[in-house]
Amino acid sequence: MRRLVTIFGGTGFIGKHLVPRLARLDYDIRIITRYPDAALPLTTQGRVGQILPRRADLRSDAAMTEAVAESSLVVNLVGILAEAKPGDFARLQGELPGRIGRGAAQAGVARVVHVSAIGADPSSDSAYARSKAAGEAALRDAFPSATILRPSIIFGPEDQFFNRFAGMAQLLPFMPVVCGRTRFQPVYVGDVADAIVAASQRGDVAGRGFELGGPRVASFRELMGYVLEVTHRRRRLVELPDGLVRLQARLGEYLPNPPLTRDQLAQLRRDNVVSPGAAGLPELGITPTPMEAVVPGYLARFRPGGGKRRVLPA
Predict the structure, then answer these.
(1) pLDDT score for 1
(2) First-to-last C-alpha distance (Å) of the chain
């Protein structure tokens, strides 16, 4: 068996941090993507020919078997926050993991690591969370020894959470708060990438699941206050009425990149933290990175003056 890893969704947020780590471990890396050109910047992270993008039909079991052929490790990072068209959650997050698992089993792959999400639940009000649970179950049926990682909200320089709200703080006279009491446990993208590497190397993770969270649990309101603190913005935190939020979410779904959907609102109503007693980063040998060590550095550009002049915090 070649020391080859096949990564589905490798051009996304996590993939950009995972690929260099696997390249340093001397894996040959095959990135399965609908848009191979998007993977070209990643090919510079290894030696010539070490990292290669490849197209595959994600709807075909035969294509999945071919895509993972000769691999010793398969990693699935495919995930979406909102549907571009109806059924995308079911197709990409509910059905695809099972198809990848069947392909990996057919091809004789040794290890499969799948990134799901805290909150995956077949009885959830959120289609996103239901599809994540369906994907885990389908993968377990096809490849029982797969390792499943469930992160909370992931932060890092390219994230769509802290960056988005810091941008809003630049433009709005107040900071909107939705479901302010809901708790989150943000986890650093580098720790998630390290967890995937650990799951690919360790002998005690087959068939297990891990919930990944950082060292701090904070409410949505507290996180918005933290964004204001590190961006040096003086803004009131304003809890938006439920009716207004539901209307905004409904209307926002007509936009190409909706700021909030009704499904995301359903997710926001439930805590997103590591379950009591669940195995997590420490069990994988990883010390969780605090937000305070990373977030201020990449949010500095949202400060008055673009972070180039000293401004006393509010």
Answers:
(1) 53
(2) 58
